[in-house]
Amino acid sequence: MLRRYIPKADGRKRPLGIPTVRDRVVQMAAKLVLEPVFEADFLPVSYGFRPGRSATMALETLRKLGATGYNHVLDADIRDYFGSIDHDKLMKLVERRVSDRRVLKLLRQWLQVGVMEDGVVSASSRARRRGG
Questions:
Q1: If residue 17 lies in a helix (H) or strand (E), which one and from where to where?
Q2: CA torsion 86→88→91→92, rounded to 10°?
Q3: 14 vs 77, which has greater pLDDT?
Q4: 16 and 129 in contact (C-beta within 8 Å)?
Q5: What is the pLDDT of residues 54-92, one digit of tens each?
Q6: Which of 88, 97, 83, 62 lies closest to 126, judged by CA?
Q7: What's the confidence (pLDDT) of residue 4?
């Protein structure tokens, strides 16, 4: 995976992992298989990064709830979530819903992928994968 950095609003830079075309094809196939499995767990009021849902839809829900007397909204962002998530715990949770060993092996490989930065490949078990 190729590493590039994009500027953040606070002036720092966010690492961006750019997968190869082959990886993108495999990622899309995995998404088509896995998304319905995990989508079933979400509540109808969850909007973030879900198929068929948008920020506009979330705002409309808030507008409607506000008109009925609700007056609190929680907006949370966990700092460096993707860079600090425990891969072993994540895989244990995924294994509760996914039994296909080939899919699980593929997911583990993605979690351990190295990155190419300035022409040098570094193997990293904690490689951050954003945008991929």
A1: strand 13-18
A2: -110
A3: 14
A4: no
A5: 989 999 998 999 999 988 887 777 777 777 889 999 999
A6: 83
A7: 87
List of long-range contacts for 33-37, beta carbons under 8 Å, 24+ apart: 33/103, 34/98, 34/103, 37/97, 37/98
Could you give the CA distance from residue 124 to residue 128 in angstroms, rounded to a whole number? 9
pTM: 0.70
d(CA 82, CA 59): 25
Measuring CA to CA, which residue among 94, 99, 21 is closest to residue 111?
A: 94
Residues paired with 14 in a beta bridge: 6
**In contact, 15 and 5? CB cutoff 8 Å:** yes
Round the average pLDDT of the chain to a whole number and report it. 85
